[in-house]
Amino acid sequence: MEQIKYTSGNNYQNITITVKLNGKDVKVHGLCTGSVAVKKNFKTKNGPGGLSKLNILLGSQYTDYLPIWVWVIEHPEGLILVDTGENAESKNIDKFLAQESGFMRYQMKHACKVNIDTKDELNYQFNKVNLKLEDVKLVVLTHLHLDHTDGLKFFPNQEIIVGKYEYNHQNNSMPSTFPSWFKPKMVDYQENKIDVFNQAYPITKTEDLLYIPTPGHTLGHSSVVFKTDDFDIIFAGDASYDQNQVLKGELAGANADYNLTKQTYKNLLEYAIIRKTIYLPTHDEKAGQRLENKEFLV
Ligand SMILES: [Zn+2]
What we know:
By secondary structure, the chain is α/β, with parallel strands linked by helices. It is built from ten helices and 14 strands. The radius of gyration is 18 Å and the shape is globular. It starts with 14 loop residues before the first strand and ends in a 5-residue tail after the last helix. The site of zinc ion (ZN) has 4 residues, from loops.
């Protein structure tokens, strides 16, 4: 049995940086809502096709506890959030997933271990950086997995967007954990909006925040590009678990479609050659550090 390493799930430091947008200062925050350890075969594909999925359940080794980042942009059009992080109730799988299938509970128990206290949740993280939950104007979801949606409970009155395809073709989401009022606005990508990715949904009127297709982890997974004056930031959700996977072409075992992931990696790398890009996956141990030091993907 592996020991839980931290008494608190909040082992990662929140990060705040200031970027320039049309010459003006805009703050970007990385807030960490607890951490999660996953089976090594969950993070890194082991074996062909269906066997790689079985190996997740059969494997015994876990990764270190990885962060669960939430990204906040103090955009001139309002406070915008990318994903919502985890909450402490998720630790009690039997209770939290009581409405889900027995197989889903089994999978969760044999794939990951969440480490989060109530004081690691988003309301506490917002306080730490002097932000107010009620000031959030828009919540953008990269996909519908619970470590990205469990913080939705804090935003009953905010607009929430998610990709239409993601909503209509969910992979391993747990709809019983969504708040009862959850009715996101479903968005479609538009053509000819961005280099390489081509399609994008403009999140802001100024089109400096774009929702782009990065499928593979789920069939409808999206990322968010922030085009600042000096460089771009891609808030990548689970497009990969860390930057190295993209650089090395390493696939995650957990992914819904490995070929889509390969194309997504190719697009990300091509994009990063055209525009200097800080690449920030949700569970990347070094994402906060790269944001702070402004380190680019290539
Ligand atoms: Zn996910």
